[in-house]
Amino acid sequence: MKEIVILSGKGGTGKSSVCSALAHIKKDNILVADCDVDAADLHLIMAPENVPGVDFYSGIIAEIDAEKCIACGLCAQKCRFDAISLYEGKYRVEPLDCEGCAYCHYICPVEAIAIPQQNIGNYFQAESRLGFTLVHARLNIGAENSGKLVAKVKSIAKEQCKKEGKDFMLVDGSPGIGCPVISSLSGVDYVVLVTEATYSGLSDLERLWTLLDMFKLPGACIVNKADINPSVASEIRKFMQKKKIADLGDIPYSEDFPKAIAMGRTLIEENETRWRPVFEKIWKAIEEKI
Amino acid sequence: MIVGFTSTGEGWDAKIDPRFGRTEFILIYDEEKDELKAVDNREVSDMAHGVGPKTAQKIHELGVQVLITGNGPGGNAAEVLKNMNVKIYIKAGGMGIREAYGTYKANKLESIGG
Amino acid sequence: MRLAIASGKGGTGKTTLAVNLALKASGTMKTVLADLDVEEPNGSIFIGGETVDEKQVYRYTPAWNQKSCSLCGKCTSWCAYNALIKLGEIILVMPNLCHSCYACSELCPDGALPMEASPLGTIRHFSRGKLDFTESKLNIGLEQAAPLIKQSLNYLDENFKDHDLQILDSPPGTACSMMEAVRSADYVILVTEPTPFGLHDLKLAVETVRQLELPFAVVINRDGIGNDELDRYLKAEEIAVWARIPHQREIAELYSRGEILFDKVAAVDDALSDILQRLEGLS
Fold first, then answer.
1. What is the pLDDT of residues C113-171, one digit of tens each?
2. How close, in Å, is residue A59 to chain C by CA atoms?
């Protein structure tokens, strides 16, 4: 079983389109893990069946027991996030403001403040519209993605992928370069970067490369919208050559991308004759390198 | 030498967990005493953030001098590890613990920092 | 009046609307536009203008004072974010994990973790004709946007309280940073597009502003490219639509060149007039 993660710096480069197209090509021999939890793109294209989710716990919120509270106000005084205020004679934490630092829990003179783990969302394992299994997560309002959730989604996906005997696990990685991305990268066999031919695309690639370098992971890059700025595209290619990032080819700007995404279709469904050969070629290149 | 492994399980028949911070177990092998000990890291790996540094602190407390793992530490953990006297060997992800140890002894694993 | 412009995710035309609305409004009233997308501010691409003020903004994180420290290690058990690590005889602080709660600093029995200022980002104030514009940018490598957004809103309170209209271009998404940006607003405009993606993300944004108990309305961008599912949803939820901007190639082209729209495209100008009229109706 080979695990491949797809990353891009920020949104809009076409990562979801590329990811779903790649998944479509290998749909009979793949499992997909959607770790880009804050952006629903992938699961809207893959339309997984509605299954009950598993509660996901992460982080804490302070809760004051009104019966024990002696209204000394020490917690409100110390809270740096203005999350505690007087309410009907006792002190109360506003959950939306609480950052879960637990300072109040430590200093309450009568131990009236608890810090229970929060159920911040659910993760799901379901059959997608195209037949393969999709493992994904949905967070509650205000909750943030974290390395922990990504790790959970990936470990469920890995186990299931092995069970199903599929050869490939495709991970739609988190954006940025923080904890969730690190978690997305852990344990993968290959990294596919999707970037665009703009200056911000180039700087995103450079930042992602420092991560790949830190983990000593082999990677390849697809340059999307390559024709909107050919000089930047060639700068990107120079960077790739210098850093030994494999070149999976250019994709010229195409209206098919926003059209397919807008209507919840993969590129292959949008225009099979145009896109199947492109993505089959990309797979071939990936398989040669793994 | 005290050799540590990021591990998926508690004994020699487990595999190397490719993750550093979120590894579920840390195996400690005392070469001189020929003793293998398993440490449960799930309390740490279950946290939302800052898991790498916490795991680094743990391996420091356990006196690990050589750590064999898969992908290696992320940014925050790497910062902590700079202050420690531990040599990290990577690319052992997925190998059985015994195989990883053997590969390390045969000088075939890539090391970073140290 | 403080108006926040938000959307479920990026790419719906939120910043374009904010910029064009601010420029048009500034023709008749004192207006300030605040770009609160601190990780990736791009409003200034459209505005230009001269710099009036630039302010370095700081956050506070603990610094370890070795001399006073008794190495009890209690700080590492208090920190909810694993930002403090004890390696034998040294305490390491991981500032990018720190949330500045001050717990370790104030609880340390030895006073060995005084809080120190470290750079968070910058707030710049530009002016272009009659429009004031603030741009807040988070320093590279920092991940927490909310503290800078909070300070940016304080900057607005201090410097622009006499302005008739404050427009907040909030970060995309519905997480912490967006909530921090919109919660002090008097009114929120949610920008969406009539596609399955647009609708899905709008529903998340609607849930968020309802949870924050903020009055809001919707502006539909690229009207005509999708289906009528969005309209049916808005009708069922009794959500007001303040304007519709049609899907026109001309608009996309002007946008890709970083150009202002309302002085060139009548449909955009009409949409902005509708919005300004509605705002007037509120006050």
1. 999 999 999 999 999 888 999 999 888 777 788 899 999 999 999 999 999 999 999 98
2. 9
Interface ipTM: 0.87
CA dihedral (A261, A263, A267, A269) in degrees, to 10, reads 160
d(CA C121, CA C138): 4
Helix or strand or coil: residue C118? strand
Please give the sequence-ordered ranges of beta strands (E in DSSP) within chain B, or none if there are none.
2-7, 25-30, 35-40, 66-68, 87-90, 110-112
Report pLDDT for A11.
66
The CATH number of whichever domain residue B24 belongs to comes to 3.30.420.130
C-alpha neighbours within 13 Å on the C-beta side of residue B10: 5
Residue B87: which domain range?
Answer: 2-112
Number of domains, chain B = 1
In chain A, what residues touch B110 (CB-CB under 8 Å)?
216
**Signed CA dihedral, A242, A246, A249, A253: sign only:** negative
In A51-70, the residues whose Cβ lies within 8 Å of chain C are: 60
For residues B59 and B39, is the Cβ–Cβ distance under 8 A?
no
pTM: predicted TM-score of the whole model, two decimal places: 0.84
Choose from B51, B95, B110 for mutation: most chain A CBs within 10 A: B51
Select the residue from B41, B47, B57 to test the C interface by mutation, using most C Cβ atoms within 10 A. B57
**What digits encode the pLDDT tens for the residues A153-177?**
999 999 999 999 999 999 999 877 6
In order of their start, the domains of chain A are 2-57+121-289 (3.40.50.300), 62-115 (3.30.70.20)
What is the residue type of C230?
A: L
Encoded amino acid at C57, one letter: V
**Domain annotation for chain C: domains and CATH numbers:** 2-58+121-282 (3.40.50.300), 64-113 (3.30.70.20)
Does the beta carbon of A114 lie under 8 angstroms from any beta carbon of chain C? no
Q: Residue A183 is nearest to which of B22, B47, B112, comparing CB atoms?
A: B22
